[in-house]
Amino acid sequence: MIEPHPTAHALVLSFDEGALSRLRERKARVAVAKRASRGGWTVVWAAWEPSGNDEIAWTERYGVFAGHTLSHDKAPIGVLACVYPAADRALYTFHGETFGPPQVEPDLARGGFDVRNASDKSASFGLVQFLTVNGESRLSATSAIEMAPMVPASLAAQHELHVWTAPGVVAGQILQHLPARALTIRFESRTTMRCTYDQMHDAFHLITEPRNSL
């Protein structure tokens, strides 16, 4: 089913003026990504130039996508078809250009999505989610896995967020490995998290405990 009132989350990132100046000199950007599904690639969910006090917001509402095969580290995802929003506990079959109607799968756990590649070529599949950064929204992939023809796979909603800075990073890039300095934050309930950027270690630090939103 499609959740009518999905859980909302927010992340606030703070930078002092010295850190902002240094990041601009490096032409570094902030990047956020979700934990990859088992056997899949991490995808840069969003990337932007820091502004000093950045706010990222999203809800736990998902879609599914099919795309070109995954070629190499840091390559962009080429989306072929997308269904948003998608019902969880359902199977979506890709026919080469579009997805067919969802088929209910009651044995799937809540937050789980099954996909099946019914085309004659390998393709990538994953979840998409809306993310708002400083008031600007975009729908972007959060993970990707490559599938051969006629092969099914299960995709699951992930609640771990990774955040780091790097030059040249852009939304939609696939990553084999996350930077070691990336901060991992787990969102489970209706929460807001706040982090500060440490210029000396080029890393973010959580500065508050999870706070339940009203």
What are the key terms here?
1 helix; 15-stranded mixed sheet; 214 residues; 4-stranded mixed sheet; globular
How would you describe this protein?
The structure is a single chain. By secondary structure, the chain is mostly beta strands. It has one domain. The protein has a 15-stranded mixed beta sheet that branches. It has a 4-stranded mixed beta sheet with strand order 8-7-9-13, with no helix packed on it. β10 and β11 form a beta hairpin. The longest helix has 10 residues. The protein is globular, with a radius of gyration of 18 Å.
Give a brief rundown of this model.
The protein has 214 residues and is mainly beta. It is built from 1 helix and 19 strands.
State the separation between the terminal residues, measured CA to CA: 25 Å
Dominant shape: globular
- The share of residues in helices is under 10%
**Count of DSSP-assigned helices:** 1
The low-pLDDT segments are: none
Secondary-structure content class? mainly beta
N-to-C series of helices and strands: EHEEEEEEEEEEEEEEEEEE
| Overall pLDDT metric | 90
Radius of gyration: 18 Å
Strand proportion, as a percent range, falls in over 45%
Q: Summarize the main sheet.
A: 15 strands, mixed
Kindly state the number of beta strands.
19
Number of domains: 1
Please render the helix and strand layout as text:
Blueprint: E1 8-14, H1 17-26, E2 28-34, E3 41-48, E4 53-59, E5 63-67, E6 79-83, E7 90-94, E8 103-104, E9 112-117, E10 123-133, E11 136-141, E12 143-147, E13 152-156, E14 160-167, E15 174-175, E16 183-186, E17 191-198, E18 203-206, E19 211-212
Parallel strand pairs: 1-17, 7-9
Antiparallel strand pairs: 1-4, 2-3, 2-14, 3-12, 3-15, 4-10, 5-6, 5-10, 7-8, 9-13, 10-11, 10-12, 14-16, 17-18, 17-19
